[in-house]
Structure formats: C-alpha cells, structure tokens
Amino acid sequence: MPAFDPVRDALRAGGSNIPLVHLNTTRRATDLAVLLNDPEDMRIPYNPKSRISAPGLVMVPLTKAEMDMYKSFRGQGAARVLKRKRQANSDTEEEPPAKKLAGDVNVVVEHYNSRPDVGVVQRLDSPIIGLKNFNNWVKSVLITRFAHSVLAQSSGRGARSGPGRAAGKVLDMGCGKGGDMTKWAKARVKEYYGVDIAAMSVEQAHKRWKTLHPPRFDAHFAAMDCYTEPLAKGFMPAMLSQPFDVVSMQFCMHYAFETVQKARCMLENVSKHLRSGGVFIGTIPNPDFLLDQLDALPQDAEKLSFGNSVYKITFEKRKTGQIFGHKYWFFLRDAVDNVPEYVVHWDNFVQMAAEYKLRLLYKQEFHRVFEEHQDHQEFGPLMVRMKVVDSDGASAMDEDQWEAANLYIAFAFEKQ
Ligand SMILES: C[S@@+](CC[C@H](N)C(=O)[O-])C[C@H]1O[C@@H](n2cnc3c(N)ncnc32)[C@H](O)[C@@H]1O
C-alpha cells in the first residue's frame, strides 16, 4: 500500500516514467473495499516520516472575532479601489449604483473580493500552509505535464530566439488574485490572460503581475462572469483573434454547475478560443468523494454535514433528481468561508465536454497525483522547494489537511 513518505521518495527520486494518459474515471473508494483489502480502492493513509508538529497542534478553530475581522478585511488593493469608487460616486451623484449580482453568485463574489491578499510572508502563518503548498504543487505538476509542451509548440512566439524563448498564450479563467502567474512564468508563456468575476481579485492580480521581476510575459485582465457572458465581453476582438494554447481553471469550474446554461457557457468560453491540440486543465472538488461522504451520513442525520477541523461541507439535500444545481456549502479553514458550490457530476461533464470537442486525457485524485509523481526527478525535489515537505522530508500537513487535500481531483482535456 502506498504511504506518504517523502524522505523515501526523495531518496528514490530519479525515475520519470509518467504515463501520459491515465484514465481512472469510475471507481469509488468504499469502506467495504477497504475491509476486503482491495488495494485499488483503498485510500492513501497519512503516514509522514516525521512531523513538524504534534497531531492536532495547529487545529485551532478561528474565533468569532477573527472570522468577523476577515469578513470585513479588504486588503490594500480593495481599500484603494473602494476609496476611488467613493470619490467617483461623490463626483457623479446621479450615476446609478453598480449592478448587483443576484443570489449565490453574489455570495461567491463578495467572499472572494473580501478575502485579504495577505502576501507571501503572512501566508506562511496560515494554519493550513501545508495544504496550500500541496495544492500549489499539484497545480505545478499539472501545468508542467500538460501545458509546457503545448506552449513550446505554439505558433505564437516571443521576439528572442533560442530554445528558452517565450511562447504561447494562456487563459486563466477564475484567476483569482493571480496566484498561478509565477507558474506560468516558469512555463515561459508569452501572453497571459487573467479573468475572474471578482473585480477586486482581478485588480490584485494585475498589481501582482506589475511587480513580477522582470515582467516575463504580456498580460491582460478582465473582470466578468465567465459562466454567463462570452469571453468577447472582456477582451477586444483583436486580442482573441489568435487562439489560446492552454485554458486553465483552477478550483473554480464547479461554480458553473449551478445550471446547465452556466456550464455550457463556461465550456463555450473554454473551447471557442482554444486551438486544436491545445489543452484545458483544471482542479475541482471530487464528486465521488462528496457523494460517498453524503451517502455515508445516517438516514436520520439532522444536518447533511461532514468534514474535519480543516474543512466542512453541508449539503442542502441528499438528492435533487437533477444533474445541475446539487448545492452544498463549503468551508475551508483560512481560505473559504461557507460559500455555495455545486457537485460536478463527472460522467455528464465529460459527455458535455465532448460536444465542445474536448477529449479527456487525465483525471486523478490529489492523493494519487502525489503517489504518481513523488518519485519523479523534477516533481520530487519540487515538493521540497515548494515546502510541501522540508529537507528532512517532514510534512507540513497534518492528517486533517491530508484528508482535505483529497477533496480535489485534477484533470486535463485536449481540444480536437
Ligand atoms: C478558489 S478561487 C481560485 C482562484 C485561483 N484559480 C487559484 O487557483 O488560486 C475560485 C475563483 O473562481 C472565481 N469565480 C467564481 N465564479 C466565477 C465566474 N462566474 N466567472 C469567473 N470567475 C469566477 C472566484 O471569484 C474565485 O476567484
């Protein structure tokens, strides 16, 4: 049975035989399978070689005062924009107030707009820094494996000559505060397009790009709802005339699965501007994990809730009888404060994606991504550099963070 043992893995690092196509789409881990010792179905146990902290030591729940503080804390960028807005409003009193988004989308936008951009130093204090680093490592693996070669083969190239020159165009849909831009800089992308519904996050992403030293790619940003509006609403036609080589949707696609219309609009935006041979990569909550946990709740459970000290998920209904709009409320410590999200019914999504000429290349749970790449000559040492483990191999995650990590799956599609 594979174990989380980074020291052993770092020592073993050297092999790089990663299968390009790995489809493991349907199996569900079940308690019965564990009892029957079916190795295919068993979850990977948390078993670090050494610990930085005693189990449970960092599991200090946020106090009510802390929660209130973070809810109303807007960060420097947001404060500046608000100040500018206030000034603009006092100049033009009769201007109508900005259109207010209705319902769940509004909750999502307000949540992401109000999350502080704490910067690298303060980020290190996060009680779930190990999990955040692990998620970033998985995204780096995904980008390196599926985007690097596609970008290198792009017809859109930078002026410099030679093998290291910038090439290719990426669309980061749901880019948030632009946390993946350094990964795209490492991918030597030539043009980066960041788009998100949360205008304050987009402003922070723009600011972050300006402080990249040196600015290693051209960047364009737009604030728009990618699940109800065409991409052309955010960017000039000339910007979209050359298709993208890569579209990336990290931890955000599931918000589109509120309705079939939103999911289709999202897929249209992904596919319409992606070149054939280009890739669509992403990360979403694992529908099998969510539904297994929901099924496992006692029939007479008062609340349809599960989780641990790091995350909590609360469903409104066991079943909706529909593919879209299967809603739950999500809390992730120091990251997401109870926002509405939707189950992505996987098989249906893959079928729908095929209608948009997107063919599945890869789908994997995060624990398995770890297992597949821990021995890799590049991704093993990268775990140390990204502080997923320290140089002695001690994990920065405790058991609850490790369990929360497996909430997610990574995927890659190719445009036909
Ligand atoms: C968990 S954050 C992920 C941010 C970033 N991709 C990352 O990996 O750090 C989810 C993002 O999805 C964005 N989002 C949600 N609904 C959206 C929509 N309809 N259109 C564009 N962005 C959306 C949110 O504003 C938020 O920034």
UniProtKB/TrEMBL annotation:
User: Is Nucleus one of the keywords UniProt gives this record?
Assistant: yes
Which key words are in the record?
Methyltransferase, mRNA capping, mRNA processing, Nucleus, RNA-binding, S-adenosyl-L-methionine, Transferase
Residues at the site labelled mRNA cap binding: K177, K183, R208, H254, E341, Y408
Question: What is the annotated localization of this protein?
Answer: Nucleus
CDD domains given in the database record = AdoMet_MTases (cd02440)
Q: Which Gene3D superfamilies match?
A: Vaccinia Virus protein VP39 (3.40.50.150)
Q: Which residues does mRNA bind?
A: N135, N136
Reactions performed catalytically = a 5'-end (5'-triphosphoguanosine)-ribonucleoside in mRNA + S-adenosyl-L-methionine = a 5'-end (N(7)-methyl 5'-triphosphoguanosine)-ribonucleoside in mRNA + S-adenosyl-L-homocysteine
Q: Which residues of the sequence carry a binding annotation for S-adenosyl-L-methionine?
A: K139, G174, D196, D225, Q250, Y255
The broad enzyme category this protein falls into is transferase
GO MF terms here are: mRNA 5'-cap (guanine-N7-)-methyltransferase activity; RNA binding
Gene Ontology cellular component terms for the protein in this record: nucleus
Q: Which residues form the MRNA cap 0 methyltransferase domain?
A: 126-416
Quote the EC number: 2.1.1.56
Q: What is its main location?
A: nucleus
Q: Which Pfam families match?
A: mRNA_G-N7_MeTrfase (PF03291)
Which family is this protein grouped under? Belongs to the class I-like SAM-binding methyltransferase superfamily. mRNA cap 0 methyltransferase family.
Function comment: Responsible for methylating the 5'-cap structure of mRNAs.
Q: What is this protein called?
A: mRNA cap guanine-N(7) methyltransferase
Question: Upper taxonomic classification of the species?
Answer: Eukaryota, Fungi, Dikarya, Basidiomycota, Agaricomycotina
